[in-house]
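ok so I'm stuck.
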Amino acid sequence: MRVPPFRWAAGEGAVARPRRAATAPPLGRDSEIERILRCVTGKPGSPQALLLLGEEGIGRTTLLRHARELATGDGVLVLWAQGWAADRRGARACLQQLLAPVLGELPTLPTAHGEVLSAAVDSAAADSGPNDAQVQAAMVALLDRLATSRPVLVCVDDAHVCDRAFLDALYTGTRLLTGRPVRSLLAARGDTLLPGMPPDMECLYLGPLSDPSAATLLDRQPAAPRGRRRLELLAEAEGNPLALVELSRRVPPPARAGLPRVGPARRPPTAHVFRTRLDALPPETARALLYAAAAGPRETIASVMAALDTDDLAVWAPAEAAGLVVLAEDRLVFRHPLARSAALSRHPVGERHQAHLDLARAAGHPEVRARHWAAATVGTSESVAAALEDSAWRRGDAVDAACALEQAARLSPQRQESTRRLAEALVAAHAVGDPGWVRDLHRRFVEDSTAAGLACVAAGALASALSQEASQRDAFDVLENISEQFPEVGRSAALALTSLAAGIAAQSGLPEHIAALSTLLDRAREADRADRRRPPVTRPLDRLDTPDAQKALEALVTTVIRPQAAAHLLPSLVRPHSALLDAPDTLACRMAVASLAYYADEADMCLGQLRKADTQLRVSRAFGIRAWSVLPLLDTLVDTGRFTEAEPLIREAGAEAAVLRLPRLQADLEAQALTLLALRGTVPPEPWLTPSVWCAVSLDENRATHARLLRARGCASIALGDWDGAWRHLRELFTADGSPLHPFLSPRSIAELAATARRTGRSKEIVPILERVRAEQGERPSTRMTLLLHHATALVDPDDAERYFHLALVNHEADRWPWERAHARLNYGVWLRRCRRTREACQQLTTALETAERLGAGALAAAAGRELRASGAAPTPAAESPLAQLTAQQRQIVRMAARGLSNREIGAQLFLSPRTVGSHLYNVYPKLGVSRRQQLRDLLEDR
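replied:
not stuck anymore, here's the structure
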């Protein structure tokens, strides 16, 4: 967060002092800091006092300290106190802390007030000092006196353990000094308001850090964990900053090289703030908390009670009274992550193992039973490893499956079974999407395995992780090197690995990768002719062993090699009565069909399949696979004008990518976010992108990312009116000889490039580019590309512009890409206006304006509005006019219908279908109070 200059609001006591450098703001608390600063600087409408609430370690003290440093640096007088439950001096202790910096001001007060405060802070006179009312009056007088020279900020931490009399004195000062530059900032533990708090005192509850902020804080710790342990710790800490720091300090060393210890139960006990409360509990409650801590988050209170062999809920009462747990429906929830950690680690290992055995006995689900058996197992056990493997994917959760399979590999006594399960764990970890976890497992796999078939599976997981880390050349090389062993895994797995290589080639955009795909596809097709005995293949790949699935994967690879092939391959996959997308376990087929639809510009089919896949992958926490589909989904949402659906998806996927440390995906999502802001007309000041993210991505081997970045920067420049800058960015989508930077994404920006060329007087420069794009699209380009090429040609061919504008608009299928169609209408309207065909120009511009407003495309709407005003278009009808309640396009249709034009004639002029025109008229009749077409003329004449 960029910290703004800290200045007290203008008014009495306002000062202007040189600002000192402040410490960095607390991580992930931008909105909270903004609200705190509004209070302490006295912004209009801000409260006189603010209370911060939150659990232990949530960051209350850090935020108070930050506000205190900012205020002090700007010359504000800060009075600070902190409550302490063990301090027996009560109110006088906090008062002494608060007044220590200003004791020299006491002689300047009226004698009575000065004597009262002097006596109040005199520890020797604590028993015979002034009463509370006298102290309150003197406090108000002192704060009022201090505020005459400079603003005053009163900060009190841990106010929940301050004496009530001290708090009442602060409340009185806040109430009586309204309008004076005196602000109070208090912090207290928990979620309960302080006793006697004034009704006008606002409260700010501090929740856990967001997932990206928690991950960043964890990664800043010395010897921060990585891989599986990192994800486990993030889940265990639940966004609590103190828990993140404390738990990271207790990450155990590996049991042996390359084999991390599994499970939180093996952490050495560490003293912390909860030990005192736990030590005070009765033995039966302490034992119950051990079982509750050993249980997983999905286990009910009933299963824990069954493991304890009791049905008496009173066993939890002491823990509830101590603020350690709370009963919520059928679950027992620890109020703080460190409380759970302490309840588990304070018991000897034997007691922990017995708790897991008892919980396994009471468990009702196989995966829960296997997890507890594993936690209680010392050494190896084939039966436990088999149970873990069998139940790993039972819930369909990739994270749980990867953890279970890794444990199964560790517990396997036979090396062959251990390496096979490790390969299974690798595939599951790749589905999770954490490259660090995949690297750790792959390193162990390489050390232990020599099986060629399993090596192919492991290579696929590693290649996917490398691609997500932006290393496309390394990722493709891994698959190309392993492709010679395709006969060892069979055709289905070989095709899956080849389709992964196709995804990498599509991301890299490198000609050599696309050219090499043909060889990989030939090897995959030949794989099932081998006579060798194939080893078992991991479960996710088994689901591809059907003719339809293999056909879909082959079509996907073929489409990446020749994008124009998508149009004729797609119908064969989605033919009527095909069971391809309706059978169980069709995720890979669904994604393959969606990819073909994406390349064929079949937006509706692409969205339908990708939405279903995205929902399935989100539920499964399989972001490693989801990362391959989320970008085509976002591309299609933005291109079809579904901005409101794209925005939350960008935020959510960005948070996942930040947690998993996927810089390439973060870069793509930042580019998409900038594109969306540009189309909406809300471009922020530069810098637009995060330097640390883009420094980690080599654009040379990530041309898809580079293309999205260039388009985003070009759109942002257009929104800001910088046409020369837009030309520079969009021109880089094509090389000097006119070949596309990226074979699929670059041609989709040809109309935007033509528009910038026309604006900057460079139309002749893009003619060769346009011709090359047209040639590479083949004889039958997609409908979308056909319309874009017509639009671009109209912009650079002044002799035949109107014909090409008509061709770009006449096809009603263009409604599937409403922003692009409105963009074409805008440019057609500009051309018509320059030809002094004002009425026709207004028709096109009005329709473009309505579409832009409906989509929320602010930049396009502003441009259309400017052109309408330049055309001398009539202003929006007055509020009393019956037409005022209609949209711009509806008003246009009504006026044309009133002149006697038929639906077909209106549609021909506005490039709408007759049915659409009729639908508009049907909807406006009730609004205008008419029932038939002939009444429209009378209505407008009456005006």
